[in-house]
Design a protein that fits this description.
Two copies of one chain form a homodimer. Chain A is built from 15 helices and 13 strands. Chain A is an alpha/beta fold. The radius of gyration of chain A is 22 Å and the shape is globular. The structure holds flavin mononucleotide (2 copies).
Chain lengths: 445, 445
């Protein structure tokens, strides 16, 4: 069988286009509606997607006037989805900066247990000063400090997940011995950021470890990914950029002694699908006309660290913007936006349109064939192991993808006709870690 | 209609008797089996219980040899149960000492959203030095300090839950205005333990606030309950003790300007139910004979702060035990155990038998009629507003209660024949808090 594509469905209220909630078809309070998300996950499962995914940040972002704001905590939401599905993987974002490892490791292990081995964790460091203010801090820890904490956080989580051997539960009713205490051991972690004694208060989970996903593309972000990630989400605007990112990250992974096949790179794509090219373009245009540029300009100004009035809508970006080095927030997203605007000589209004469609991810409008072609092109050109599918409108855009694009990918022999395993690791073709193997791998760097 | 009983089902793996997992009928790995718990919740819902409840502590407790050890994180588990039930309330324990308010308030609000208003939170301060060692600390914060933090934690949680007004979501597609930003406000909390800016990143939940439950019976514990709790779980061995506790807590609640009807007091009862008295006693004896006293003696020694060898199995407790004042852990449980042993002149072996059955809760063996009588006696004698039902064996003990004891309580006109509301607050007869009213009530003390 030829190399197979992986598909993740990135779900977000009424869709990734910021004006999607204004369409007549959209349920504007979908962001707190568990039935909406259960329905989406069932659609993705019908399309045999590897996984569904929720982004997250422990802070209210932006102006509530703009678009559906606030969201259900992802581990809770994914547990509700687990109950409504049977095979699809479930990836939740959680911050290593604003959680502590004992509780979070246990929570992901719990989701893995209740879902029968379908849990994944998108490990993020949470950019921006606003989140810090919800957690007793006046400002965010520095970028490098956040990534240093993230690495130690993961070491602690691995150790906790491995603190029970797989066969620690003896359950010998006759002898009256439930567990073998020699196979449940403290971890006695003492590090720069954490002291955690362990063991975890939960037997080892079906996958051993939930799948580790990473989504930051700064230097430190790529370093963390190369060392720990099993799947990587990334925003890439051009084939050349995506190829460079792909080659770079695979090489970094190999340099750390890991098989580069064990890290799956999934760029985002925001498809707008129509039965004809005209229909797709019409939908895209309808959406773009519903954007209210004031909100977007304010957020852009915040990201670029300038005042909104420094960004006249019909001019290009000012020439004197800060370097990525000076950014303590989301470094790679900052650079992506500035590069996109400069390369395509976009006005602020045009830039806002592009970001409103996919927040920096590649947008693509067309027929199911054209979308499939766009996906296959990158997949075969060494730019992707699969895609993070970010429908502009939900549920209709996901239905169009699952029912019209997926069958084409399947015809081309690039995508499964049914699940062959039951766990998220099996969908991504990744081994179940044994405690021993991991201890070595983690210690190897 | 006469005053109505409230019933909560306290669920724990194979049952509350420590040897229950050794019975032929028991699934010894039920502690990580979501289907087991979904089945239990459906049984309780068929019996029209107000709620199901899970205890919790962020540490592995005791020797894994002894009995099923480790448990699924309760908010995750209850979310999975929410998907398998439609009416029953869902109460999860979470620690104010080892969580932070922003994440936890959001998590409970999320459970409230996905369950359609069925979430409750058993607020505990987590006793013992072992938990602290999983959270960067060498020892637990002092008892008074933990309760001080708990009170501030609750103030922050209330403020976050109320940071979105109920009608903040306008969802005006035409005008392109999703939320009314004037109705979503930061909380700007600055206190001894926390600085939290807010607002929450989630619209207000169906119940406004999840139901607040409290379960510590020390002086500070009762103070916290009187001020904040809407239901109280408590371990009481005798009618006289239960009456005194009930009168005391209702008086404390009234003294703070709260209607004492708004705090429901639920002592625990561990029923062992048989078709005949002999059958019940036979089951009780079978269970007690399966206890292995070494494990229990070690734990008792830890609680009493003596060495195991200071507790010969066939002698009474040593005379010179510490006062409750000297205990920084679970003060009220300590006193309950010592009082029980001294009052009934129990040997260590007998005490272990009593604690093995219900960990200090009232145990009661008998026919369904006798169990119903025991419940009604306390209910009518001013000792209880209802009961925390802790079956010795699960699922069989819960089935016996739901199918044989509940119908008797119903015949006596003391328990619902069906749910009349859809939320946990409605089951307990408690109002949905409006942001205004609560701000006043909380500020009143
Ligand atoms: C598809 C995708 C999803 C992401 N989701 C989140 C998220 O949910 N929360 C978050 O804090 N960062 C998320 N990020 C990462 C941020 O965009 C940003 O890169 C990161 O916060 C900062 O890392 P960096 O400085 O290494 O780029 C995501 C990135 C991608 C590509
Ligand atoms: C039914 C019941 C359930 C309880 N569940 C928990 C629990 O899950 N976690 C916990 O830390 N304490 C729990 N407690 C409270 C402890 O028994 C103990 O009272 C408390 O940790 C210390 O509070 P105190 O010193 O005020 O008594 C529970 C108490 C009762 C009566």
């Amino acid at each position: 069988m030829s190399r197979q594509l992986h598909l993740n469905a990135f779900l977000m209220s009424t869709g990734h286009h910021e004006a999607s909630w204004r369409l007549p078809e959209s349920n504007p309070v979908a962001n707190t509606d568990v039935a909406h998300y259960q329905n989406l996950a069932r659609i993705a499962e019908r399309g045999k997607f590897d996984s569904v995914f929720f982004a997250d940040s422990p802070v209210l972002i932006g102006d509530v006037g703009r678009r559906p704001a606030g969201s259900l905590e992802p581990t809770v939401l994914l547990t509700a989805i687990a109950a409504a599905t049977s095979r699809i993987g479930l990836i939740a974002t959680a911050s290593t900066t604003y959680n502590d490892p004992f509780n979070l490791a246990r929570r992901f292990a719990s989701v893995d247990h209740v879902s029968g081995g379908r849990a994944g964790w998108n490990v993020v460091t949470t950019a921006g000063p606003d989140a810090a203010k919800n957690f007793n801090l006046a400002d965010q820890p520095a970028h490098a400090e956040r990534y240093d904490r993230a690495a130690e956080f993961l070491e602690v989580a691995y150790a906790l997940w491995d603190s029970w051997e797989d066969d620690a539960t003896v359950a010998d009713k006759e002898a009256g011995v439930w567990g073998d205490s020699a196979r449940v051991q403290p971890i006695d972690h003492v590090g720069r950021h954490f002291q955690v004694r362990g063991p975890l208060n939960l037997p080892r989970s079906p996958q051993g470890h939930p799948l580790i996903v990473q989504a930051g593309s700064s230097e430190d972000g790529k370093g963390l990914a190369a060392r720990y990630a099993e799947a990587v989400f990334t925003a890439q605007q051009t084939l050349a950029d995506a190829q460079a990112f792909y080659a770079d990250l695979k090489a970094r992974t190999a340099a750390l002694g890991r098989d580069p096949e064990t890290i799956k790179i999934l760029p985002g794509i925001v498809p707008v699908i129509g039965g004809t090219v005209e229909e797709a373009l019409r939908l895209e245009q309808e959406l773009d006309e519903l954007i209210k540029p004031e909100y977007a300009r304010q957020q852009l100004a915040k990201t670029l660290r300038v005042r909104p009035e420094d960004l006249p809508l019909d001019r290009q970006l000012p020439a004197d913007l800060p370097d990525e080095d000076e950014i303590e927030g989301a470094k790679s997203r900052y650079t992506l936006i500035v590069t996109l605007a400069r390369r395509e000589k976009l006005t602020v209004r045009e830039l806002i349109g592009r970001l409103g469609g996919g927040r920096g991810h590649r947008t693509f409008s067309g027929t199911p064939e054209q979308v499939a072609d766009a996906i296959v092109e990158w997949f075969e050109a060494g730019a992707a192991d699969g895609f993070n599918v970010m429908p502009a409108v939900l549920p209709s855009g996901l239905e169009a993808f699952a029912d019209h694009v997926v069958p084409i990918l399947r015809q081309r022999g690039l995508f499964r006709t049914d699940y062959t395993g039951t766990t998220l690791r099996e969908h991504y073709g990744l081994a179940r870690p044994s405690p021993e193997r991991l201890t070595t791998a983690v210690g190897a760097n």
